[in-house]
Amino acid sequence: MRKLGKWVGETVKMSSYSAEAETSPLLVNNAAERWWSKIIDVDEAKDQILFALPMILTNVAYYFIPLVSVMFAGHLGELELAGSNLANSWASVSGFALMVGLSGALETLCGQGYGAKQYRMLGIYLQASCIITLIFVIAASVLWWYSDIVLSLLHQDPQISKAAGLYLKYLIPGLLAYGLLQNILRFLQTQSIVMPLVVCSLLPLVLHIGIAYALVHCTTLAYKGAPLAASISLWISVLMLGLYVLKAKKFEGTWNGFRSESLSHIFSNLKIALPSAAMVCLEYWAFEILVLLAGLMPNSEVTTSLIAMCVNTEAVAYMFAYGLSAAASTRVSNELGAGNPDRAKHAMSVTLKLTILLALCIVLALAFGHNLWASLFSDSQVIINSYSKMTPFLVVSILCDFIQGILSGVARGCGWQHLAMCINLATFYLVGMTIAAILGFKVKLYAKGLWIGLICGLSVQTIGLLLLTKFTKWTRIESPRYSLQKPVEVLV
């Protein structure tokens, strides 16, 4: 009996150990979840990450379509390489940045309209924004048509300016496509419909490689075929997204056909679109001014290459932050439209925490792999070593740029573009460029001085946007009341 009792006791003890072993992973998982929930709202974070990833892929695809054209043109010769690069930079600051900025009005209007369940108004806002885009494309196209003269007046090499001007003339159709794309993208983004954007951007990118090769190497167009291929590929993307909006049943509430009512919303849309465009362009231009200032320094070839590499690094890094910026804008605008300012602030705090984690990952990758990254741009050991010395400054600027990117997305979601524009103007030009010029030329810090000036501008901008979100009342923008009651005429 004693042996039997001892055997039963040992059996019960072993079974308890077994049960404890089986449940311990669950206990560990639950403890981990509780630990994470204290730091961040896990469900909100998951939703934002699933939203941000497709937006990052979409942004990268649209960034690479014109860049692939530059690569094909660059292989035709040194003049073609210089001309296409100059044209692409000029296109970014005088056209593409403008289109991105103008579409920012839809982040406010469509985002808050969707949150308020005014679904019919989303299609009206989209049409009004497309009309505004068309007007500004016409103005930008005139500038592009005479860009060879403009670039020559800006003291660029006459032959390179002529090559850039020719390139831009064949890229004009692509500017309209890019503007319409940005509007449709915002229309879908504010409804949290993002996966179709990935398909309608990656597929045209893949097709673009074949189209560019065929036009550049298999036709008499040669150099002119590169920008024409970019225009064709952008229009393919427009047609794909346009057909999706017209045919998909999920847009029956938000798209009711073309309506004359949209004409009455052009002015109200423009009041948000213009500050939004200025807000984006002021930041784009600040980075380009740094490159121009670098060209005025002693040993300008090395300094210009170094600053251009830093600007490109910042741009590539910001593509990752862009997805979270779009998530912040959408979540904030939707919640404000629904009348939930506290939930909008909560969504912003979650996005900021995710951004800091993402920025740290990218900064660590840059810190350990800066020589490998620099070698992709240049084989010169002098430039690679100089870039290595710039890496600590790049780390600081990327951290600031990530945080301000999220706060800028919040500003677009809240409809504060006019206030953010004033902050960008003051911080980048009164603070950043002034300090950059003093440190770069007077103190003779050269490239480091220019980038320290940019860091000062970004830091003050971040502080300004933080104060804006802290002390400005989070409310819905007022939409015209007549728009909800007025009978409308269907045009198509």
Describe this structure as you would to a colleague.
The protein is an all-alpha fold. It has two domains: 58-258, no CATH class; 274-476, no CATH class. 83% of the residues lie in helices and 0% in strands. It contains 15 helices and no strands. Helix 2 runs parallel beside helix 8 (195-217). The protein is globular.
Task: Write a brief structural summary.
This protein has 15 helices and no strands. The chain is mostly helical and 492 residues long.
Attribute tags:
single chain; 492 residues; mainly alpha; 2 domains; 15 helices; globular; disordered C terminus; MATE_euk; Protein DETOXIFICATION; transmembrane; xenobiotic transmembrane transporter activity; transmembrane helix
Furnish the topology, listing elements before pairings.
Blueprint lengths: L1 H38 L2 H33 L3 H38 L3 H27 L1 H7 L4 H12 L2 H18 L5 H23 L7 H23 L18 H29 L5 H38 L3 H35 L5 H34 L2 H26 L4 H25 L21
Helix pairs in contact: 2-3, 2-8, 2-9, 2-11, 3-4, 3-6, 3-7, 3-10, 3-11, 4-7, 4-10, 5-6, 7-9, 8-9, 10-11, 10-14, 10-15, 11-12, 11-13, 12-13, 13-15, 14-15
Query: What proportion strand?
Result: under 5%
Radius of gyration: 26 Å
Mean pLDDT: 87
Largest sheet: none
Count of all domains: 2
Structural class based on helices, strands and sheet pairing: mainly alpha
* Secondary-structure element order, N to C: HHHHHHHHHHHHHHH
Q: Which shape, going by the Cα principal axes?
A: globular
Unreliable stretches covering 5 or more consecutive residues: 10-23, 481-492
Distance between the termini: 93 Å
Q: Helical segment tally?
A: 15
The count of strands amounts to 0
**Share in helix:** over 70%
